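user: can you give me the structure for this one chain? tokens are fine.
assistant: on it. calling the predictor now.
[tool input]
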Amino acid sequence: METWQYLGIGLALFLGSAVQSAVGFAFGLFSITILLLMGLPPSQAIPLVAIGALVQTGVSVWMHRAELRWRAIAAMAALGIAFQPVGVWLLQQLDTHARAWIKPAFGIILLVVVLAQWLIRPRPHPKVHWSWGVLAMATGGTLMGLAGMGGPPIVLWVMAHDWSSQRSRATLWCFFLCMIPTNLLFFYHRFGPPVLESIGLGAAYLPVVLLGIAPGLWLGRRIPKPQLRRITFILLVVIAAWAIAQPLVSRLVLSR
């Protein structure tokens, strides 16, 4: 990679960490798509971002461990993990047979998950039918393997429970903490040594990820949460639209 790409990776991870710290989500949604637009293949971009997400969720889970119901979380996380190989296989097929469509495909996935999280507001219930949990974890596990963006279906399932905000957040973080390492293993099985190089590069950028936490928390304290979420959603929609349109724009520019 060239120097500008290394700088771009650092900026993408810094901004992704700041957004995550400010609004509580979007690290992967933001950073992975930006790295793809910079030219990194998804088999490298997803593991690179996963290391920063793993550290962030690990710290958060440790701080809120008293809120966790480990037995229920383990069963649900196992279901999500079981579907990760499906997503990784789909990504491999896309990378092998339709590489030109990778950016638009990721843009469409990002657009769908953002709009779903923006528009769907499930009413909290004391108990949610088990089938919704199966659907959420199966979809989340597949999306995590395919695009590193498995959070939104699981977020919607958690939002459907009348849990406290602390328990909801801790449960989400714990799901991701369980599912990120297995996703990396499945990636290594499918894509080989380049995944290990991306993991090492992600580890080298951890100080940048940690630096992004403080300004994100600062913004989160000074901007009302609803307004901050709207800004984040709009930003993600713009990024998704650019990912969808970029191949067409590039083709038009080259044709001139």
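assistant: here you go. Residues 136 and 157 are 6 Å apart (CA to CA). The two ends are 28 Å apart (CA to CA).
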